[in-house]
Write a structure and sequence with these properties.
The complex is a heterodimer of chains A (265) and B (355). Chain A is an alpha+beta fold. Chain A has helices at residues 5-12, 98-114, 138-153, 191-196, 235-264; strands spanning 27-31, 39-45, 48-59, 74-81, 123-133, 162-168, 185-187, 199-206, 222-229. Chain A starts with a helix and ends with a helix. Chain B folds into 2 domains: 14-44 and 254-355, no CATH class; 51-245, GHMP Kinase, N-terminal domain (Ribosomal Protein S5, domain 2), CATH 3.30.230. Classes of the chains: A alpha+beta (265), B alpha+beta (355).
Chain lengths: 265, 355
């Protein structure tokens, strides 16, 4: 393949889709898209588009001895990747595949601890995520879509949980040389980049302001809630990638806040 | 929990008491003017919003949603595939003229250049069901059949590209063809007639890349997506705006759900209405003018032998026995007749802007 990020990027400093290293793809989102659910959202980041609907908090299943009987709401996540989402037509033998169940697990554990579930004892919050079109950063887009849908459903949370991906513009398998640093970190990876380059997904939220000095804190304190990495990279690059990813998250937070405020206005 | 709830919503069982069902049945079966729960007239459809070309990664896609949030999304993907022929058919095929073979569709040559039904694939996901469960397979096969079966109307209307219907359109040359896959992802609550309308729109918006190679060469396509051609060719729009002629010589079929309650024929029933129906009919009017029924799937009401139970006023119980032939005939006539509901629906769908 001649169009390869790792070969063309050092020459042009432009990525395959023409972005610079620190540019997000076009993010568009709507909330309250589906009146049949408690909360719903549609989010597209570049060519990745996701629909998410939230049902609940509703009464949990009877006779379910597990966590539903405790004083916290249980978050259930169901991820469905549509057959036409990828480049190739995909034929699955029923049920879900590895990718979607991994995303579901990550989302469940992220939102289970993020939401104020203690306000809804003995109840269930079920989240249904449909991936309509997959072009990289699926988990990040799913986190953002879920956050919007949960906000629409009116479920209290300490802050918006925003996800973003970041990577390096080369394989980054050798220790970083600070004197001539030719690799750039990349923000918000698309599918071809994700397949080729090391990448990580990070999701952050704003920390809850506590104590008496919560008002005079100008700087927004960020808290990393989700961090997954499924590729190999030398440890020296990790800090750069994380910094870029967290910066992307705060950009996305502003965009999502705009969506939420805009729809209520 | 979620899968359970969704499964129950998909299996179309409304939670109404026998008394409520009885009330519903009585008001729907009032002679001449049935009263529907939402105040619609018998032939009135629920208002819906539709959009096409919503998914960037597909050849064609559409979304239709009712106001209450039930919605369907269908994406169509096309891919080039090598036509597999048995050795003996290949010989006879190479002798036959290409155009000749198109016309002789249905004779011995159904396996060759005239196109095959298997080239169209339909996959419907229903929450709570596996892909290979009976219900999704039945639904998708029902819709696929009507799509593939809409051949007959094609050459009547004389569209050159669509000779042989959808199957014929998928032929590139003797060795290559398009494979069309329609997907409907697993969204909660998707009633089947909505799915059919959405598939219709998705197919209308489907584009295939323009073919650059000619004859029996290996297919080679124009990489300019703007030059892509519609799967269902359309005549120029200026002509259609002046005259009432449809802008599509050939259209994919739609399947309408019609129910009979007493003597009344009711269109676009909601779930509660289906529950009390005497008969539920899925009718696919192909091209309204040629009045051909492509597929007629009838699910007559519970066909049990009448037991010894007495009818109790105000308590609903499932109808026993079948429905009268005259009722079925009237249902079909209302859909397919000149100026019938079938024509009306297709006209309405034409109003949806397909970019």
């Amino acid at each position: 393949m001649p169009l390869d990020t790792s070969t063309t990027y050092p020459l042009t400093r432009l990525r395959l889709d023409g972005r610079r290293w620190n540019e997000l793809r076009l993010l568009q989102a709507q909330i309250s898209t589906n009146p049949a659910s408690s909360g719903s959202s549609y989010l597209s980041m570049g060519n990745t588009s996701i629909m998410c609907s939230v049902h609940g908090p509703a009464e949990g299943r009877r006779g379910d001895g597990g966590p539903a009987g405790s004083g916290h709401a249980v978050v259930e996540v169901d991820v469905n990747v549509a057959g036409f989402a990828g480049v190739d037509r995909k034929r699955r033998a029923g049920g879900s595949d590895r990718q979607s169940s991994r995303i579901a697990t990550t989302l469940r554990s992220a939102f289970q601890s993020h939401l104020h579930t203690y306000l809804y004892p003995h109840s269930t919050i079920s989240i249904h995520v449909s991936v309509l079109s997959a072009d990289g950063s699926l988990l990040a887009a799913a986190i953002n879509a879920c956050t919007l849908a949960l906000v629409d459903a009116g479920i209290p949370m300490p802050g918006l949980l925003c996800g973003c991906t970041s990577g390096m513009s080369g394989s980054a398998s050798t220790p970083r040389d600070p004197r001539h640093d030719e690799l750039d970190p990349l923000l918000d990876l698309s599918l071809p980049e994700e397949q080729e380059l090391p990448s990580l997904t990070v999701a952050t939220t704003t920390a809850v302001p506590v104590g008496e000095n919560n008002m005079d804190e100008d700087e927004e304190a960020m808290k990393v809630c989700v961090l997954t990495m499924e590729s190999k990279v030398h440890a020296t690059y990790l800090e750069t990638m994380l910094a870029v990813g967290i910066d992307g998250c705060s950009q996305i937070r502003e965009l999502l806040e705009g969506v939420i405020k805009g729809s209520r206005g | 929990m979620s899968s359970q709830r969704q499964a129950s919503s998909a299996s179309q069982v409304p939670h109404l008491s026998p008394a409520e069902l009885s009330y519903l049945y009585t008001s729907l079966s009032l002679p001449k003017n049935p009263i529907r729960p939402d105040g619609r007239s018998p032939t009135q459809f629920r208002p819906l919003s539709a959009e096409t070309t919503i998914l960037p990664g597909t050849n064609g896609s559409a979304r239709i949603g009712f106001a209450d949030g039930t919605q369907a999304i269908v994406g169509v993907k096309a891919e080039v595939e090598k036509t597999v022929l048995a050795a003996d058919t290949l010989d006879s095929r190479s002798l036959a003229q290409h155009g000749d073979a198109l016309n002789r569709e249905g004779e011995e040559g159904s396996a060759a250049v005239s196109g095959q039904g298997e080239w169209v694939q339909m996959s419907i996901e229903i929450p709570g069901f596996r892909d290979d469960d009976a219900l999704p397979v039945f639904l998708s096969e029902m819709m696929r059949e009507s799509l593939v079966g809409s051949v007959a109307g094609g050459d009547v209307d004389g569209a050159k590209e669509m000779a042989g219907g959808l199957k014929g359109r998928l032929v590139i040359n003797k060795r290559w063809h398009w494979r069309l896959s329609c997907f409907s992802p697993n969204l909660s609550h998707t009633p089947s007639p909505l799915l059919s309308l959405t598939t219709h729109l998705a197919l209308l918006s489907t584009k295939l890349p323009k073919l650059k190679s000619t004859g029996e060469e290996d297919p080679f396509f124009d990489d300019d997506w703007a030059a892509a051609e519609y799967l269902y060719p359309r005549s120029n729009t200026s002509k259609s705006s002046l005259s009432a002629a449809p802008s599509y010589p050939v259209r994919p079929p739609v399947t309408l759900l019609v129910i009979a309650v007493g003597e009344n024929v009711i269109f676009d029933p909601n779930r509660e209405e289906i529950a009390v129906a005497d008969a539920v009919l899925a009718i696919s009017p192909g091209i309204p003018n040629s009045e051909n029924v492509n597929m007629l799937g009838a699910t007559a009401g519970p066909g049990e032998e009448s037991g010894g139970q007495e009818e109790v006023e105000g308590v609903w119980r499932p109808r026993r026995g079948g429905v009268k032939r005259s009722v079925i005939a009237r249902m079909v006539k209302t859909v397919l007749g000149k100026g019938g509901v079938g024509e009306e629906v297709l006209e309405g769908l034409e109003g949806v802007e397909v970019q």
